[in-house]
Amino acid sequence: MLKKLDLKQKVTALLVIILIAGLILSGFSLSTVLRGNARNEITSTALLLMETMTSVRTYTNTQVKPELIDKLETEFLPEVIPAYSAREVFEILRIQPKYKEFFYKEATLNPTNLRDKANAFETKIVERFRKDNNLKELRGFHSTSGGDIFYIARPLPVSEPSCLECHSTPDAAPKSQIERYGTAGGFGWKLNEIIGAQIISVPSSTVIQKANQYSFLIIGIVSFVFVAVILLINVFLHRQVVRPLKRITRIAEEVSTGHMDVNFPDYEHKSNDEIGHLAQAFKRMKLSLEMAMKRLKRSSGRSTGRSTGGSTGGSTNS
Fold first, then answer.
1. CA of 150: how far to CAs of 116, 182, 220, 256, in Å?
2. DSSP code, position 146
3. Which of 104, 106, 255, 311 fits a disulfide with 90 by CB distance 3.0 to 4.6 angstroms?
4. pLDDT of residue 318
5. CATH label of the domain that carries residue 133
6. Degrees, nearest 5: CA angle 74-75-80
7. Where is pLDDT greater, at 84 or 22?
8. Domains held by the chain: number
9. In this structure, is residue 1 part of a structural domain?
């Protein structure tokens, strides 16, 4: 098949093969690198959101709760609960498109509000934090019934004594809290005890999609550049190699049929590359051939003259 192609087509085919092979090999490498970059980017966003939620909890516990604690005896106000404030603020953040895929939960082993109850997977995370006080963060992928997720978790300790006002014993808790949630959960907490985990999750498809976007962009740019290079190489080959070779071939064919009046173009004579050297070699060969033809004609002329003279003399003698 390659034998039927001309030089430019062979070079183009070779470059296309290199392009396809390069894209395949680099695609796998790019996919791994870009997925890591996408995961790091999402991780940075998730950690920023988690720090924000921690700040909201601290603000609620130190600024809001002291102002409203007296009203809890007659009316339960969820705004004084740090977990409630953090959850509500996060839901407001999720209205923005760049945060809509993120989910926040304060997964608690023994929560007051069952909405915060840790599931089986979240319970394992909390237990790991409780067993290892030096463990400050966990992250990874996890399969759920709704699809795979990428999560980041940090321990949630009872860091403020004020938290025990509502979570030590039912007798110490505000009456409005007991009336709303009962005494089944949210009690028996101790200072500095890890009672849950802050978990921010995002569908793993978001990580993959972001990586694919980067991959398609980079591969598209590389392909565009490579196609442009192929076109430029083809133009260069046509002007600097193919066209001069065709001229040399045409002239060589004319010389081979006896047309000695043809000359090689000036470009091929002046060029210092291999094409120029080839043209100069053909020019020298043409000159040598012309000289040889002239010698042959002269030799042929002498032989004819001698032959004619000899024949005339013989006829006279007779």
1. 19, 35, 28, 76
2. T
3. 104
4. 42
5. 3.30.450
6. 125
7. 84
8. 1
9. no
Beta bridge partners of 103: 201
Helix (H, G, I), strand (E, B) or coil at 168: coil
Contact, 56 vs 106, CB < 8 A? no
Residue 161, CA atoms < 13 Å, CB-side half-sphere: 0
Inside any domain, residue 274 = no
Torsion of CA 19, 22, 28, 32, to 10 degrees: -110
The arithmetic mean of pLDDT across residues 17-29, rounded, is 74
Residue 244: partners with Cβ closer than 8 Å, 6 or more residues away: 265, 267, 268, 271, 275, 279
In a domain, 129, yes or no: yes
At 56, the amino acid letter reads: V
Helix (H, G, I), strand (E, B) or coil at 159: coil
Give tens-digit pLDDT for 126-164.
Answer: 999 999 989 999 998 888 887 888 899 999 998 888 788
Strands 103-108, 138-144: pairing is unpaired
Q: What is the pLDDT of residue 265?
A: 59
Whether 93 maps to a domain, the answer reads: yes
Do residues 275 and 241 make contact, with C-beta atoms less than 8 angstroms apart? yes
Contact 126, 106 (CB under 8 A): no
SS3 content of the chain, % helix, strand, coil (to 5): 70, 10, 20
Burial label for 212, CB within 10 Å (0-12, 13-18, 19+), is middle
Q: Model pTM?
A: 0.61
Other CB atoms within a 10 A radius of the CB of residue 181 amount to 17
Would you list the DSSP string of 49-108? HHHHHHHHHHHIIIIIHHHHGGGGGTS--GGG-HHHHHHHHHHHHTTSGGGTT-EEEEEE
Find the domain containing 170 and state its range.
36-204
Using the predicted structure, report yes or no on whether residue 288 has a pLDDT greater than 70. yes
Q: Please state, for a pLDDT cut of 70, what percent of the chain lies above it.
A: 82
The angle formed by the CA atoms of residues 235, 236 and 240, to the nearest 5 degrees, is 125
